[in-house]
Amino acid sequence: MSSSSRHIKIFDTTLRDGEQSPGCSMNQKEKVAVAQQLERLNVDIIEAGFAIASPGDFASIQAIAQAVKTPIICSLARAKKADIQAAADSLALAKRKRIHTFIATSPVHMQYKLMMTPDQVVDTAAEAVRLAKSFVADVEFSCEDAGRSDWDFLVRVVTAAIQAGATTINIPDTVGYQLPDGDRGFGALIAYLMDRVPGIDAVDLSVHCHDDLGLATANALAGVRAGASQIECTINGIGERAGNTPLEEIVMALQVRSDDLGVHTSIHTPEIMAASRLVTRITGSVVQPNKAIVGANAFAHEAGIHQHGMLKNRDTYEIMTAESVGRVDSTLVLGKHSGRHAFIDKLKALNIQASDADITRAFERFKRVCDVKKQLTDRDIEALVMDEQDQGATALVLNTVAVVTGNGPKPSATVSLFQEDREWVGTETGEGSVDAIYNTVDALVGETFDLVDYVIHSVTGGTDAIAEVTVRLQENGQIFVGRGAALDVLVASAKAYINAINQLRDNRDRT
Ligand SMILES: [Zn+2]
Hints:
The protein is 42% helix and 21% strand. The protein has helices spanning 14-20, 28-41, 55-67, 81-90, 107-114, 118-133, 151-163, 186-196, 216-225, 247-256, 258-261, 272-283, 304-312, 340-349, 356-372, 378-391, 433-445, 489-510, and strands at 6-7, 9-12, 45-50, 72-78, 97-104, 139-144, 168-173, 204-209, 230-233, 263-264, 334-335, 375-376, 396-404, 412-419, 422-429, 450-458, 467-475, 478-486. Helix 8 runs parallel beside helix 9 (216-225) and helix 17 (433-445) packs parallel to helix 18. The protein binds zinc ion.
């Protein structure tokens, strides 16, 4: 990179904005795993959660603050005393910390949501920043719904926030309404603030764009061109409604077109694919196949003429390599003759953290799977280990499942479940094989559940691929995600359902 190249900070909000979106909730262990992967990606800032939202959120921020050392850990707070106090408390153990406080600045939000006058909003914002500043040196202030706020009013609020001590000013297009270009576009808004806010050069100006019109990445780029020095984004673009700017897209756009943009980030891009897969697995939110950078087809060259060109010179149709975003299975494939040592080495190479008990169970599974499937790829091994961790020590465990199905009589399933030392066995029918299994499990546990989603994906190609199933159950507006992995789709389906029931019951016990 040339010396004139500007550094753009990457602020990841997968664990806050992303986690808030429907069906993407994560437990503490999962959040820590994502935060550790974000550290490997080398993001500058991790927004770890909204401390006052719940005791669970608070505890997760604390756990992340202890587990992660390099990135700054950020905790979100409304412009309220109790929120800011909670954010500060949650960060007590963080090595590097930031409080992010916000208030809405658009006419519709001020009038109907806050019921405050513009003057009151300016005073409240400045007060909130001063209070946050009394706890930490690094304070970010956001104007919620900036995309629909009056520009001169934004200049006023932002000026007040900087005078109160804010070190980063974030301009969110909260409802994804902005266009990147044009006199009233998002780039023009950032340029307007760069021009008119006193002291803006001494702080970071940040953009936070939503994808309601599919323009989040384009708007973030326009912001960078106009002078923004921080981008807020999420892995796979998860987030409220249509989601946020996807980290993988904006980072690779800045890298591949650094010639034109004159900027760089600190992201270690070969960790992108691992981050994408981890977030997919944890949230069960599958990435569309044609998604830029991380979709299954993003680097597939199908058309004959393209393949012909690629064979002659990869530059014909390739603007970046698959390796640069970590899309390569290592050539070291494990099989029947691999020992426990090789297996553990592989887990280390894949950055998979697991307890000794998890590893022992996973290794036994691995040996059994090798009898059926000759070679296991990195992804297969990842799925198996994660599966053993997921089932964990929780209450219900699948023992056996057998299904009778076909195009004749109604399918029926016989399921055996363990709970501690007891075993339950039952048989029920259903409209299909999975329905029969789930009806049987319901009968055994004595209740029915509200199943809102069921997704199968194969880990690698072929009919002997390991199947991963994600199931979502709903209770009192809360979503519980269950996962299961197995060589057989029906076994994976049973495991995922039982895993979701365990999560739901675990939550009942805690509340
Ligand atoms: Zn947002």
